[in-house]
Specification:
15 helices; alpha/beta; binds zinc ion; Arylsulfatase, C-terminal domain; single chain; four-stranded antiparallel sheet; 473 residues
């Protein structure tokens, strides 16, 4: 018995060792070493419109909080690939996600419309067929389109597959099996290595045509990491950083593949996230619960088919509803209709010309209906309004004595971590932002008409979503 156990242990040890060596290899792949993109300037950004050979790679890293990336000021080296792309492209320093829950946030990101108008606020809601999605515009323009996703909230039955020729959850591959053993807490099937493999497969078939590829990565949501990325410790928060480091390496591998195929110099790389993650800053962990700084400030990086030297930073407030208006504008493609977001081309060209004076007057909105997962619960909206250094957060309760309405105001110019509620000290600012929140909650009418798609979840789908850790009725 002892011998068998020893044998099993040594086999397990060998597998683990092989896994460590394999993934250590991934970590050493730094796209920068191989980058074959020519140097470019702002004039090359302006002339993207006239090129007919530019592909678009959209990497959506689920649950990626901006403050945990090194290029966004974090002291730990969690993110060499993101940092490299930021350093040779454009980093948007103050990017606001429109919700802290994937489905609500992605509906706004894709359509350029705030949650109150999309109406995608609760678990059965989706984007109806009448909504125009960026993939439909790309397909109409002759791109081959594929979406590879691992989060059930962006499944095709919620309307997110519109315009994609292929829209699939990748099959779990055996090569990632060791990760399942090392991460027994994870219930969601597969890992982002499956998404990497499926992406490479798509590029093998369609890489030489013009393409739009959306890859939605999930391992950070799952806190998945391995021995090679276990660099930062063992607390919950450390493990989140370990997981970022691992996902960063997987993205590095995808970009390195593009380099090897001669595709990176023909590709606009769009790196974004749907929401951040909280670590008890205000007593709450995770996301999809509130709309404070921790769960709504996300990265947004554009990498061009050329290297900007040095990379640019846009310091103004920008929002996920601006992402597709910007990309479609830069590529000279038709716009999305009637968006709340707008093209950031003026901010990009201002940053490129070295202008440091700018109006910081863009209002940002993040919105979560905290009753989203339970049909029996009434609507309990939390709305954040950002303007300049201020963030006003309205938490509307049910009106019951144990669930009152709460308000907070933060001034990031004095208090960068936004820990001190200054609503009593700045009554004029509070009044202005309170009005904006009220106006926002009174807006209605999506570009496609009234109301979201209403989807009936079957038990299998509900179980897949529960596997992500959500409580759904
Ligand atoms: Zn998410």
């Amino acid at each position: 018995m002892k011998i068998v156990r020893a044998l099993l242990a040594s086999v397990g040890g060998l597998i683990a060792l092989a896994a460590v060596l394999y993934l250590a290899g991934i970590l050493q792949v730094e796209v920068g070493n191989a980058d074959s993109r020519p140097a470019g300037t702002v004039y090359d950004i302006e002339s993207l419109k006239r090129r007919d050979d530019v592909n678009v790679l959209f990497i959506l890293t689920d649950t990626l909080r901006a403050h945990r990336l090194h290029s966004y000021g974090y002291e730990r080296e969690t993110s060499p690939t993101f940092d490299y792309m930021a350093g040779t492209g454009i980093r948007f320093a103050r990017q606001l996600a429109q919700s802290s829950w994937t489905k609500c946030s992605m509906a706004s990101l894709w359509t350029g419309v705030y949650p109150q108008r999309t109406g995608v606020l609760r678990s059965p809601h989706g984007a109806p067929e009448e909504a125009l999605m960026p993939a439909e515009i790309f397909r109409e323009a002759g791109f081959r389109t594929a979406g590879i996703w691992r989060n059930g909230w962006v499944a095709p039955n919620f309307g997110f597959g519109q315009g994609f020729e292929v829209y699939e959850r990748p099959l779990p591959q055996t090569r990632a099996r060791h990760l399942r053993v090392e991460n027994p807490h994870i219930k969601l099937e597969g890992t982002d290595l499956d998404a990497l493999e499926a992406s490479i497969e798509f590029l093998r078939i369609h890489g030489k045509e013009r393409w739009f590829l959306y890859v939605h990565l999930m391992d950070i949501h799952q806190y998945l990491y391995d021995a090679s990325s276990a660099l930062f410790g063992t607390t919950y928060s450390d493990i989140y950083d370990n997981s970022i480091r691992r996902t960063d390496a997987i993205i590095g591998q995808l970009l390195t593949h593009l380099v090897e195929e001669g595709l990176l110099e023909k590709t606009l790389v769009v790196m974004a996230s749907d929401h951040g993650e909280a670590f008890s800053e205000r007593g709450l962990e995770g996301h999809a619960r509130e709309v404070f700084r921790e769960s709504t400030e996300v990265p947004f990086i554009l990498g061009f088919p050329f290297r900007l030297e040095p990379g640019l930073t846009v310091e103004q407030r920008t929002r996920n509803v601006d992402i597709w208006p910007t990309v479609l504008d830069l590529l000279g493609l038709p716009p999305l209709p009637d968006t709340d977001g707008r093209s950031l081309a003026p901010e990009i060209f201002a940053a490129a010309s070295g202008r440091e004076d700018f109006d910081d007057d863009i209002v940002g909105v993040a919105h979560l209906d905290r009753g989203w997962g339970r049909e029996s619960q009434p609507s309990r909206p939390a709305v954040a309004i950002t303007l300049g250094p201020y963030r006003y957060v309205l938490q509307r309760g049910t009106g019951e004595p144990n669930d009152p309405e709460l308000e907070s105001l933060f001034d990031a110019s004095e208090d960068p971590l936004e820990r001190r509620n200054v609503i009593e000290d700045l009554p004029d600012v509070a009044a202005d932002l309170r009005d904006l929140a009220g106006e926002y909650l009174a807006t209605e009418g999506a570009p496609w008409g009234e109301g979201p798609l209403e989807v009936e979840l079957d038990e299998m789908e509900a179980n897949q979503l529960r596997a992500l850790g959500y409580a759904i009725e």
